[in-house]
Amino acid sequence: MNTGDPKLDARSKRRLLGVNPKLTKVLQDFAKQTEIKFIVVEGVRSVDRQRELVAAGASRTMNSKHLTGRAVDLAVILGGELRWDWPLYMQLAKELTSFATASGVHIVAGAFWKLFKDGPHFELGPKE
Fold it and tell me: Which of 64, 84, 100, 123 has its CA 20 to 30 A from that of 94?
């Protein structure tokens, strides 16, 4: 993985296969202009994968937008390493949702949820 490249890496692009085209385009465009380095950890999920995540407590629903390609999980790269520090995800959420809004697409960031905050999670808004 070339963490100095501001574009999405090949693995991230593969993980966007099947993800809603609006969400995919926003992520690709955002990656080209942001200083934040990130990868796509997960896009579309199978029902079996979702069931595993619910059983592990990593998700609370079998109605995840990942099942329909309307959500992705992102991870921040800092200093060439994957990082999970909460402030990094708040920054990513603020910048990505602002960029998406300016692009005419409503994205909901899990970092802003009141219950079960999910920093890596981004999904299309209900009217998209």
Answer: 64
